[in-house]
Amino acid sequence: DYPEGSGDGNGAPGKSAFIVDFNRYVDGGQFHELEKLTLNNLAQDPSGFHEYLGYALFREGEVPAPRSGWATVSLNGEAKGLYVTLEAEDNDADRERWYGTDQGNLYEGAYGVDLYPEHVEWFEQDNGDDESRDDLRELTEALDAIGPDDDVVGELEALLDLDEYLTFSAT
Fold this sequence. Notes:
This protein is α+β, with helices and mostly antiparallel strands and 171 residues long. The protein is 28% helix and 20% strand.
């Protein structure tokens, strides 16, 4: 049980969002190939549908996005209500499905963080052995080096999957 006054999450009293980590206490623990499952409390989506629909649109556009669904959750016998269930992006199976490998660095940006050199350290690394963030620094430097007289499209295509990025941005 939670102490008095705790368990409030994102403006939804008594309904915190959380991650179920099947691998936390049992090495190699999984549930349907997932090491983690995210349960979002819908505090910012009272319809319960926007997040699910958004991820479905990304997947239809072949932009990497987690599989999602819904669940009614109870904790310690207390009903907490409807949640969106999300496959955590740092699950090996998710990365293998989208990228063909579970290797490489995977980053998560905090809310309001953009890809600027001074923000590189603010990105949380969710996967990868190289924790230097040199790959992010190199990317920001390469993006900053593109000048107004350069072939911008060609330069961007050399740095990233431009079609996937544009689909992501449009979605």
